């Protein structure tokens, strides 16, 4: 280091004079006039330095005068002060470390001027602040207590506690409320956020006593550099006289009229407040309708839409512009101005323009409102005319109008709208609820046109939405692929495509696709006889052209299709049309695969002078022709028929090979049926049975709802006309059924057909009260569609004895839900012919098929199983219960409901917060018969299980492999014997042998866990040894709380899982052959396999696991020989959770109603518990945001990194996995930690962040595999999200280049400050979801030593919050985009590194302004006091850093460390330095001097440096109080560096380093200047 000084007295005297003048007169030192840059001298007391003047800390809270918090600075000096490089920093009242948040400052504060820093907000109350000099939403101060510091630097400062004066870099500080940091004493603070007061400095005076300097004022007066006098007095006179003449000629263009916002045109009510007025408004065109009849377009306020809160969004930002010319001329995306008259067109607000123009200025793009369809009318009004992306589930609930107007009616949710009297009695709350449900969920999907496709003029235009082979059925799920406009037309809220939808543009314009819900056949209903009923839609073989007087419905070419009137025929117009009708009916009946089919609406041929059975015979002939054999026969008419009959009748057909008739058919000739079709009765028996197996079927077709007078008039109660007639008909039917049943010698009677009555209407109540059971009502399906509501007019009722024979029921939805355009009667109605010869739309009613078991039948056991329910008390619990009950209803007496364990533990909040009692109550209500014990049942230890849990449970917990410590004595019950429909079912339960590693060891210290297969085999032998004293079973079922590592959705097969070995392979291959069915669990996988039975020749048995959480119910059906009770057949499947509406499930199943009560109470109690505080945050900690919306999964976030940090810290102890790195998937973060008014985080808020209840796992990955994990952030091609940014713990950083090839994008990884070693093993903490390869992070499955910690994410997360609060956001990124890495660089040479994505987008994230580069030898830590080798500005998160490796740097391995300010984002990349023969380095000629002064308790060190070279020189000045760098000091220029601190200082030295280039060669020199110490006395 050079120690000589170049002396020159003249520059020294001039510089000293300038410096002292600034110190004594101005209070802030400025650089000498020779320098172009001002160097600020910070901190002074009593009017000689910038101060914090006012702080308002509760912006946006209740009663707030302003929406945002602020800190106001004041300059009491006579000179401008450059604030560049300064910051305002905040630390919580109890903090002891670095400050929590910062706002970087820039610009100048004028003498006597103000500077306004806008901070965070607690809400939306108050007015906007005046224009701020700095906007820093991350500066989120507490409203009642904390510390604010004005700092001459941007790095976080760590303040001592207590009274703080004389701190380096701290220009001013105020501690308020109960803060632990202050000047002398704390300033007063508002008592609460809703007290609108600010901290005000009195007259700008700073005495270093916050209590004395600040007072609380109710008048809040934010002022900044652009703010004038906040309350100016008006002048009495104008400042100038107006000129008599205008100064310029008027321009040709008129000035812009006042623009009215679209929201103001719409208003907040159903009609615009500006109706009849001419207004000018502006918007972005979102939809145009130049064709189709709408003759207009939609405009929307620029930038509006996105994630809206409909509770506060009260006025629409969209508007219809009624102008065909504008629709033809303007284009979507244009920014336009419209002037015209406002009107309401049938309740749609619109403007009819007198003029419009395209604006030149750009407009922010409109974002589709991402909202679910509002149930509230006012909220719909607030979206009228806006572009929306419908969120949530939708399905088709009506497709009748598609054939006419190209529109569909949708219902939000997962269930269609149901006829009110199908779910509730007329006038009941249930019926009213169905009406309200329709009003809340119904919305039309239109085609953007008024076209009537039923008009002859338009039949040549293809229908929208409907194409051959792609049915749009009622109940079909709807997927919106593009946004739509919500408008109001034809008295309905409507989703419109953004232009007229046609067949030609459907590929790009059609906004939705529809799921195909067709099935090829009905569900298997079992039994040895299948009974069906089918309304065949006026099947008339007497066609209209055979009669006189008929009029017709015609196709688009005028050809007759069906009879319209004028004659008695009701069906096809001609043979060609009949052939089409018959083809579909035959296809439907064949696919029904029934043995007996009752028919309704078939021709009574006697009305046309033919044999009464002529049409019936023709249909049977057609069926036999299709079958190629005489498979079908009809029941002939009885000898006695009513004298007066309708032209349509009822009938029976049957398969003689399976069924025979017993006796003659009988028709009920009763006056009650004078306006309807008379019931027809026939007794049948199996062809190979006897008359003891006989059953009677009566087919009906009651009076329709369409007409009636007098007592039959429609009363308006929902039952339609002629209800009184139908009640009389039902009454007569009951008596008739008794008669024919008695005559036939059977009490097994079925009443079937079209009753023209919905399920809860009066006529069907008559049948129910007579003891008949409505079988179709148990299916959750419906047979008919009318007016957009599904419901059942067709029914099968069974007598009490007949119910015993029923094995299954299905309503086959092939007709009612299909578009009418598919019907034979609509053939060639439109240019698109949708008719085909399939069963679909063979009628307008759906058939019902019922399975019957006649005679001595095999015994059927219906075993229902769940596993790993994990306390799922949530919105799906009622549907879970409904699924159990729907499956139980298939075989009520033969059902046993079982569980494979983990019913509780790792539960959702509503259950876990109440010790899982709600879950136990739900399973009790569902009559769970028995359960294996799972590992989570031991979460709170054995005593809790056998005490509290067993006491509360109505079932036993089975653990055949759980033994008392050191013995083989069972510690739990090993098996249960269940009596199921007369069969003894032995159920054996076991738990995974790994349980000790999954629960707290102390809780199971007295237990051993043995081999589960050995235990099952031991107990099976016991239950099969013939010794009644030790238990005997007819059927044995094993419940293994252990399972396959992969399932069917993973693409696994049973053979692959067995080949992989392990415990599951033993379960399959070694479990005793006498075990008839195997239910498994624990691994949360889904499969239903046929497993080979060991030691047998090809015999299999069912093995099933349902996944988890009640998403599926495992159903094993065992068919037993009635004599031996051996299993002769079985089925195995997983049944997905039902989508039947909750209200319907509750009304149908009493157990579900009880579950609903339990769930509602549990959720209410959880809400109370959820309000309990668990910690706090100092500022928002959120997911990444984009366009104002949270959950940008393609970007890193403060929340993701915090959760990853919590995982690492939680699993760091060796006994919990020894984690070194934490990893989190962005999709797991479902809510944010928001500061709110007080920073408190409640239990519910914390739980909402991680609601999935994953277990915490650790797994070992090599460095190479971890790098591959980072590569897999780029998802497989075709993924819905191409990039998923992982959250990482703070000891990991990496660089990447997205333009590189797949697998080569990660360019460097640093762990714990060192480059990652590809061969080294690292323990990774993560969620079970990721650890098993979720989100396509498949490299996890290649890891080793995967361990389940037994901890649940929610519980670990909340414990972390409790232990770590207050939490602060870390704005440092882990991953940074980087260009080509430097690799090898010669000493003395330069390298440039391009960086991007340095900034986070989480709320409060600061924009980085500068990057500093440091060269650190490999293996060493960066010295925080070291000067950077280079700096570069950051713009929009990007920087280009050019680093010159200092000449003479020793060759070797280095880390190039780049630190972005103010976020602290750190990038570390490897760099190899090679030495070169550098040219000789000469010195640099400077004049230097250092001295110190002290005034008013503040010491200042001045360092004066003059460049005596002829070239520009870089100069760095360093003292113990900071560093100043001047990159370009001109020849002869003097720079003054001023360093300030409170109190006295010891003597010391200043180091001045200079580098330049002289005649092409580098030059460098270091100077050291001493300075004296200053007094420790306060004043001097």
UniProtKB/TrEMBL annotation:
Residues 1-31 form the signal peptide. GO terms for molecular function: endonuclease activity; hydrolase activity. Residues 36-178 form the LTD domain. Residues 218-228 have a biased composition (Polar residues). GO terms for biological process: nucleotide catabolic process. SUPFAM superfamilies: 5'-nucleotidase (syn. UDP-sugar hydrolase), C-terminal domain, DNase I-like, Lamin A/C globular tail domain, Metallo-dependent phosphatases. Residues 188-255 are annotated as: Disordered. InterPro entries: 5'-Nucleotdase_C, 5'-Nucleotdase_C_sf, 5_nucleotidase/apyrase, Calcineurin-like_PHP, Endo/exonu/phosph_ase_sf, Endo/exonuclease/phosphatase, ExeM-like, Lamin_tail_dom. Pfam families: 5_nucleotid_C, Exo_endo_phos, LTD, Metallophos. Residues 230-255 have a biased composition (Acidic residues). Keywords: Endonuclease, Hydrolase, Nuclease, Signal. This is ExeM/NucH family extracellular endonuclease. The lineage of its organism: Bacteria, Bacillati, Actinomycetota, Actinomycetes, Micrococcales.
